[in-house]
Design brief:
By secondary structure, this protein is an alpha+beta fold. It contains 14 helices and 7 strands.
Length: 365
């Protein structure tokens, strides 16, 4: 009896030791401590602003892509560029002719087979391999080549500028003895060479929608752009920022370009469209001969007035040299006016020419 009591005592002691050393094993999941939930309003104002900004940016990008797609579809259907529309018009004409000779069941079978092949075979391959899509997907390339309204306006302006380019051979082929003298040779020396195409020139041609040959002159009074003030005569306010805008003038072989300093307003004036160039003095009571040039362009009622032009006489002379070299309208008109002024000056001395003694010539014989 005593032996049994001692054994039971040791067994119970051993059980207590095992329970302390070995953690209990159970099949039920352990209960985790429930942490108190954080306050949902604990996010800062900057985090909320970033979230709203991100959502707004995504929405703006999506709506922008939708608007671009609608503009591309409109320009495609309106035949803005005939080459793009012909790529759609030709398959539609073929499909129309096919409907005249095939039955409806055959047409439905062919269309369904084509759609199934494109949706379940071709499109997954193109989505997985973008390079193959760029190379072989004609529909994707056609959609990427379509133009939005802004791109179409720039494309149209570039084509219009290409038609106003003066022939380069005409500028360089004439010799200085054809009535222009050394002025034409000096203007020909200003022409940019084909080996001096810099990144700045590329950006300039892209801003004004000009070809790469129409780069600014690397020398002369227009080098690097000539600072001036573009005077708007249509403005009712005589002294304001709307009336006078700071601008820069650039000269290329075929265009006189100006762009505003603080705005994106810019324009390339074709030299072939200029009717008259004159020196002006907008404010008459100031001393001196003035520092302005007035340029009248064909098709525009109001002239372009560029005031505050340092080195105005050199700029005027350069424009006249290029006009004489290419037989432009404003240069011919200037020659006619200057020739008429010389004749009027000589008309007052006709009596002196008539009364010159005839024997004066015989003295040198």
């Amino acid at each position: 009896m005593w032996f049994k009591i001692n054994i039971s005592r040791y067994v119970s002691l051993f059980e207590i030791i095992l329970r302390k050393l070995i953690p209990p094993i159970t099949l039920l999941p352990c209960k985790k401590k429930i942490e108190p939930e954080k306050d949902k309003d604990s996010t800062s104002v900057s985090d909320k602003f970033n979230i709203v900004l991100e959502v707004a940016t995504k929405g703006q990008n999506k709506f922008g892509q939708l608007a671009d797609g609608l503009e591309k579809a409109k320009n495609l259907l309106m035949w803005k560029r005939a080459g793009d529309t012909k790529q759609i018009f030709t398959p539609l004409c073929g499909a129309f002719i096919m409907t005249l000779f095939l039955k409806l069941d055959t047409i439905v079978f062919v269309v369904g087979w084509f759609l199934g092949l494109k949706l379940f075979v071709i499109d997954p391959v193109y989505n997985r391999f973008p390079r193959i899509k760029e190379k072989y997907d004609n529909t994707h390339r056609l959609w990427q080549n379509l133009l939005t309204d802004a791109q179409l306006e720039k494309y149209t302006q570039r084509n219009a500028n290409n038609q106003m380019i003066l022939p380069r051979s005409q500028q360089l082929s004439k010799s200085p003895t054809e009535g222009v003298g050394s002025r034409q040779s000096s203007s020909a020396s200003l022409l940019p060479s084909s080996d001096t195409m810099s990144e700045e020139d590329r950006l300039f041609c892209d801003r004004f929608d000009l070809p790469e040959d129409e780069r600014p002159f690397p020398a002369g009074p227009f080098k690097g752009g000539r600072h001036c003030i573009h005077v708007d005569k249509e403005s009712s306010v005589k002294v304001s920022t709307a009336f006078q805008k700071h601008a820069k003038l650039y000269l290329t072989p075929s265009f006189l370009c100006y762009e505003m300093v603080r705005t994106d307003e810019r324009r390339a004036i074709p030299l072939a469209n200029i009717v008259r160039i004159e020196k002006r003095k907008p404010i008459s009571f100031l001393p001196g001969n003035g520092m302005s040039l007035e340029i009248v362009e064909q098709g525009f009622e109001m002239p372009h007035i560029f005031g505050g032009l340092l080195g105005r006489d050199q700029c005027y002379k350069t424009l006249m040299d290029i006009g004489r070299a290419n037989s432009l309208v404003y240069a011919q008109q200037h020659e006619e006016v200057s020739g008429g002024m010389r004749l009027s000056e000589l008309s007052g001395h006709e009596d002196l020419i008539a009364t010159e003694p005839v024997g004066a010539v015989s003295q040198f014989e």
